Every structure is written in C-alpha cells, then in structure tokens.
Task: inverse folding
C-alpha cells in the first residue's frame, strides 16, 4: 500500500521519500540533532492528525453534514500504567499514550455529533496504531 525510503544525511537529519514527495526528519538539539525538521514522533502524530481530519471531512461530505472546520491536536507521552485512567487493568510499567483532542466546528444534530465522534476514532492510521503492528524486519549489511 504505502512505501517509504529514508537515508541519513548529516548528523541526525534524514531525507524521507515516497517517490513523489520528499520531506525530512531530524532530532532536537537536545538529542544531537539540528532541529531542522519534525522528529519521528512528531511525524507519526502528524500522520494521525492528518488522517483524522481527512476522514472526518470525507465522512461529512459523503453524508452531507455541514462541517465547517476540523482540527486535531495530539500529544505523545510515556506514562506509568498506574497513572493511566484509560489503560487496561493488566497494564504495567511505562506505556506509550497518545492524547487526541479533535475539534469539530459546525451545526450538527445530536445523531451527527455522536457519529462524527465515533468516526474521529476510526481513521485508518488510528485503527492501525490501536490494533498494533506486525513488523517484518530485514537488516542487510553491506561493505
């Protein structure tokens, strides 16, 4: 479905491409980077935020719901499971948590509000992250 390649340039700066678009990732100065681009976690959050906004817009358009504006603010943190209200009872140690704040502007019926709130958590990237990912890693060493 999606294919990305990346190459380390200088320091911690990485050039990323999908064959049609090129963008960059970098680490903040505090981690040895030059802070010239968003770090990988910021890009992950950006992908989820963009997917959420687009999914809501497409749904509203399809159902002819008068959506004026949609914004998504996200934050990534590592928190202790004991401090996580949303976590399952068997969660232990430190866990990764993404906090999502979606703001939807428009005049909606109660039914539309309920449906839009549900759709906001069902974008493809959200479903992938929530469901977990299986990795098929291949590491090749060349001289």
Result:
């Amino acid at each position: 479905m999606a294919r990305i390649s990346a190459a380390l340039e200088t320091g911690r700066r990485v050039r990323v491409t999908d064959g049609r678009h090129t963008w960059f990732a970098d680490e903040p100065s505090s981690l040895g980077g030059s802070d010239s681009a968003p770090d990988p976690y910021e890009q992950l959050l950006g992908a989820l935020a963009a997917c959420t906004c687009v999914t809501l817009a497409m749904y509203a358009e399809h159902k002819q719901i008068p959506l004026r504006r949609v914004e998504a603010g996200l934050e990534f943190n590592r928190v202790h499971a004991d401090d996580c209200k949303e976590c399952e009872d068997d969660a232990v140690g430190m866990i990764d948590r993404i906090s999502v704040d979606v703001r939807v502007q428009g005049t909606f019926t109660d039914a539309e509000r309920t449906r839009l709130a549900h759709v906001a958590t069902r974008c493809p990237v959200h479903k992938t992250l929530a469901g977990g990912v299986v990795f098929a890693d291949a590491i090749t060493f060349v001289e």
Notes: The mean pLDDT is 93. The longest helix spans residues 40-62.
